[in-house]
Automatic annotation (TrEMBL):
It holds the Pfam family Ribosomal_L10. SUPFAM superfamilies: Ribosomal protein L10-like (SSF160369). GO terms for biological process: translation. GO terms for molecular function: large ribosomal subunit rRNA binding. Forms part of the ribosomal stalk, playing a central role in the interaction of the ribosome with GTP-bound translation factors. Coiled coil: none annotated. This is Large ribosomal subunit protein uL10. It comes from Devosia oryzisoli. GO terms for cellular component: ribonucleoprotein complex; ribosome. The keyword Phosphoprotein does not apply. Belongs to the universal ribosomal protein uL10 family. Part of the ribosomal stalk of the 50S ribosomal subunit. The N-terminus interacts with L11 and the large rRNA to form the base of the stalk. The C-terminus forms an elongated spine to which L12 dimers bind in a sequential fashion forming a multimeric L10(L12)X complex.
Length: 172
């Protein structure tokens, strides 16, 4: 690779990692092309990307990006998965690692916080931004539903009492 190509690769990595909510670094030794393609497709559906880059170039790119120093993770054949949603890349990577023993999560970063493998797996158990938004909308909607049912209850109670009196009068 020539210097110009290396600069271009570093610049593209910096651009990609700048907007990342989280970054996952993993070993991919012995992973089949089909399995790796499956990982790429899953991460892409979640709005992220998977890149394989030379360790030295990845370390250079990370120096210029405002994320935690995770350069020590780049040893051996590594792959980088990242997404704008902080939970998406760790969630997909952790699920993929469970199915494929050859995919080993080394760690990652979420902003200025460096994560070890357990930290990435813990982040994977958290709900995504869309799930949190849905829960929040449900919580906001819940009180309005409760108020409406409370307002309807007295009227329904009165109607039942009047109906019971009417039936009692007819029977007598």
């Amino acid at each position: 690779m020539e210097r110009a190509e290396k600069r271009e690769v570093v610049a593209s990595l910096q651009e990609a990692l700048t907007g990342a909510g989280s970054i996952v670094v993993a070993h991919n030794t012995g992973l089949t092309v089909a399995a790796f393609t499956d990982l790429r497709v899953q991460v892409k559906k979640a709005g992220g990307k998977v890149k394989v880059a030379k360790n030295r170039l990845a370390k250079l790119a990370l120096k210029e990006v405002d994320v935690a120093d995770i350069s020590d993770l780049f040893t051996g054949p590594t792959v980088i998965a990242y997404a704008e949603d902080p939970v998406a890349a760790p969630k997909i990577a952790a699920a993929f690692a469970e199915k494929n023993q050859k995919f080993v999560i080394l760690g990652g970063a979420m902003g200025q916080t460096a994560l070890d493998a357990d930290g990435v797996k813990a982040l994977a158990t958290m709900p995504s931004l869309d799930e949190l938004r849905a829960k929040l909308a449900g919580l906001v909607k819940q009180p309005a539903t409760n108020i409406a049912s409370i307002l309807v209850q007295p009227g329904a109670g009165i109607a039942r009492v009047l109906k019971a009196h009417a039936e009692k009068s007819e029977a007598a």
